């Protein structure tokens, strides 16, 4: 009987340890908004667990009970979120010269579900039917979206660490490669 109790206790302990280790890391959703105008100014906002310390380029904030945060920064963005033993990072920078072609850009990164959407507007508004094609190198995925009056929106999965997005703009039979956008997540 004593062996049965010890075995049952060990089984419960192993089940508990497995359940704890299977819990996801710190949930985090981040929105980075580039407001255009040729500057490097961005707004970084999002949601996470209350009590998390969120930091962007020397500015830190403890997330209040609402779970929401908002910070102002500049490119490149290097966000760090820490709670207990969990840490999340998001690094994002636009390629050199990209700001002169963008009226605005919004990157919504869900680091809990490991997916993101990128929406933006080009400074060129009058153009024939066009599309933007993005190859996510590490996820081995190609996503295509239409460009209407310079505006576009597309979504794709995230992978841990480096995410390289190779951009191409296509007008009919002509296409132009744009600089790659690279960001890292942890």
Major sheet size, sense and barrel closure? 8 strands, antiparallel
Side by side, the strands of the main sheet go 4-3-6-7-14-13-10-11
Low-confidence stretches: 1-23
H/E element order: HEEEEEEEEEEEEEE
Cα Rg: 21 Å
Q: In what range is the share of β-strand residues?
A: over 45%
Distance between the termini: 48 Å
How many helices?
Answer: 1
Report helical residue fraction. 10-25%
Category from helices, strands and their pairing? mainly beta
Give structural notes:
The chain has 186 residues and is mainly beta. 11% of the residues lie in helices and 57% in strands. The protein contains one helix and 14 strands. An eight-stranded antiparallel sheet has the order 4-3-6-7-14-13-10-11, with no helix packed on it. A six-stranded antiparallel sheet has the order 5-2-1-8-9-12, with no helix packed on it. It is globular, with a radius of gyration of 21 Å. 20% of the residues are buried.
Q: Layout of helices and strands, plus pairs?
A:
Layout: H1 2-21, E1 28-34, E2 41-48, E3 53-56, E4 59-62, E5 68-74, E6 77-83, E7 86-93, E8 102-110, E9 115-122, E10 130-136, E11 141-147, E12 151-157, E13 161-171, E14 174-185
Antiparallel strand pairs: 1-2, 1-8, 2-5, 3-4, 3-6, 6-7, 7-14, 8-9, 9-12, 10-11, 10-13, 13-14
């Amino acid at each position: 009987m004593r062996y049965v109790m010890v075995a049952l206790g060990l089984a419960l302990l192993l089940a508990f340890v497995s359940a704890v280790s299977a819990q996801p890391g710190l949930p985090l959703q981040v929105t980075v908004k580039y407001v255009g105008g040729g500057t490097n100014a961005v707004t970084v906002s999002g949601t996470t667990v209350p009590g998390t310390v969120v930091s962007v380029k020397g500015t830190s904030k403890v997330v209040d009970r609402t779970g929401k945060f908002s910070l102002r920064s500049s490119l490149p963005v290097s966000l760090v979120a820490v709670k207990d033993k969990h840490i999340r990072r998001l690094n994002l920078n636009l390629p050199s010269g990209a700001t002169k072609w963008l009226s605005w850009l919004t990157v919504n990164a869900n680091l809990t579900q490991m997916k993101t959407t990128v929406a933006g507007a080009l400074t060129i508004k009058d153009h024939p039917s066009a599309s933007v094609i993005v190859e996510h190198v590490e996820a081995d995925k190609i996503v295509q979206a239409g460009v209407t009056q310079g505006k576009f929106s597309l979504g794709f999965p995230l992978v841990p660490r480096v995410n390289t997005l190779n951009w191409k703009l296509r007008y009919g039979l002509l296409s132009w490669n744009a600089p790659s956008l690279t960001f890292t997540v942890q």
